[in-house]
Each structure stands twice: as C-alpha cells, then as structure tokens.
Amino acid sequence: MLQSVQQQTAKHIPRGLLSLLYLPHEWAPLPISHYIKLDANPIPSPPPPPPPPPPPQNIPTKMVGVFRRSLSFPNKAPAISRQTKPRISRHLRSLSLPCRSHPLISSLKEEIANLKSWSSTDHRDAVWLCRGLTTVKLVHDYLDDILQLPQSRESICRLSKWVENVLEDFLCFIDAYGIFQSLILGFREEHVAAHVAIRRKDKTKLDLYTKARKRMAKETTQLVSVVRGVKAAEGTAVSEEELEAAIKDVMEVTGMVSVAVFEGIGASLGSRRNRWTGKTKKVENGILEFMEVSQNGDVDELTVRIEKMRDLEEGIRCIESSTEKLFRRLIDTRVSILNAISH
Known about the structure:
Blueprint: H1 2-12, H2 15-18, H3 32-35, H4 61-71, H5 103-118, H6 126-147, H7 150-158, H8 160-200, H9 203-228, H10 242-269, H11 288-292, H12 302-342
Helix pairs in contact: 5-6, 5-10, 6-10, 6-12, 8-9, 8-10, 8-12, 9-10
C-alpha cells in the first residue's frame, strides 16, 4: 500500500524533492503539502515600484542657468539662432543702375553741378575754358564707367530706339571738336609766327596773322550753330530709367560748355578796335587773353604786346590739350554705347 502511494506521488513530484519525503520525522516536522502545493496557483509577480517623487517647482532661475552652462563650453559664447540674428540692411537696387548712393552716380551729379556753376562765372579767361573742358571730359569718364555695368547694358537694350538718336548727337559733338582741334592747332602756328613778327616788325607776317584771326573767328562761330542744334533726344513717354536721365544731363552740359568755348573764342577774335578811341570794343562772353592781343600798337607798347602774346600762346596750348582729351573721350563713350547695344 505504501509503495503504491509513493509511486503515485513520485509521478507528480520532481526528482529533486523526492528526497524530502524520506527524511526523518524530526527533520520534516511539517507536512509535505506545506512545502509543495501541486494544485496551487502560480505565485504572482511583485508589484512595480512606486514612481519617483516629482522635482520641486521652486527651483531658482540661476540654478538652471548654471546647470545648462556646465553641459556646454563655458569659454565660448552661445550660438545665436537664425531667428535671433539681426537683419542686414541693404539698399534696394534699381533695374537700370545701382542705387542713387552709388559712387559713380554721385560723382557724375557732382561734376554736372560744378559745370552749371562754372558757366555763371563773369571772369572768363583761358584757364576758365580749360577747366570747363577738363570737367566735361571727367563727366564723360564717369558716364563711360556707368555704361560698363551689366544693369546699364540691359537699359541700353530697352532704350535702343532712343539710344540711336543719342549716338547721332555724339557724332555731332565729335565732328565739331574734330574741326575745332584742327582750327586751334593751325591758329597756334600762326600765333607763334606773329610773335616773332612783332619783334622783327614784319608787317607781312602780321597781316597773315590778322587774316588767321578772322578765319578762326568765322569758323568757330559756325561751330556754335552746330552744337546748339544738338538737343537731348526725347525719351520714352513713361520712363523710369536712371541711365536715360544721366545721359540727358551729360549731353546738356556738353552742349553748354561747347557753346561757351566756341562762342567765346569766336567773339574775342572777331572784335575790332574803335577808330576814334583806339580801344577794343567790349565783347560779351569774350575770353580775356584773346581780346587783349591786338593787331596794331605803338613801338612803346612792344614789351606789353609781347607779354600778352606769350600769355595767349600758353592759353592756346592749354585749350588744345584739353580739346584733344575731350575729343578722344567722346569717341570712347560713343563706342561704349555701341558695344552695349551689340551685347
């Protein structure tokens, strides 16, 4: 009977625990059911640990800052986000030219203003003429630099019909200054010969000088009508092109200075002495050195006449040099406009 019970029990008890069934009574004071419960439910898992307590809410701001700073590099400034970067102020750009604060535009307008004040001067001499011619050449230098800009070339293409008239006006100025350059060169040679003739009292050479003066006066007066016929071409009906306004201003001051030069020299060389007083009539807008040199004079005035002839020769050389530079600049500016159209 006992063996059958043991055999049935051994079927349900693991091998490692069978040895406990045969322990003495004093070693196993409790029943087997206390140690092993075959039909008992599995032991439940222990409950999860409670969540940690929430952090205190009254943490000072300084402690948070110190904690964040300890995690970063203390020797470097914190990086600025893109949203907090200050916006860089930029000037709005025009479609035709740079903004009005551009150095080329500012310099061009400044020299044009100087020419307008130059024309209102009462004291007119050879130095005054040379300063006007030099300033006009400088104005065309700035205009040529402006024409090299990509924005200007785009404007030239949009104003192609208007620019064709501008090219014709430039051609008139080039022709006028080309003729004047030849006239002033020939007159300087006649003047140098007359300077020697005064010392030698060579009447034949002095008569030739008189004819040269009249011829110079007549031809320069004709140039006045040529440059006065050059007017700034009318632009488009609704124009917002700064380049168009700049070219108009340049053409205007070029014509103004050209009239002052040609008219001043022509009127001064064509002045005549009064038969009764022996004095030269006052010529409006005349050039001082050209008016002071007269074709007649007494022997006692020989030294004064030679000195005035020398002053006029220096003035003629200055005018000749300034005219040549302006003549070349007019050609270069016209070529720049043609290149802008072709591109």
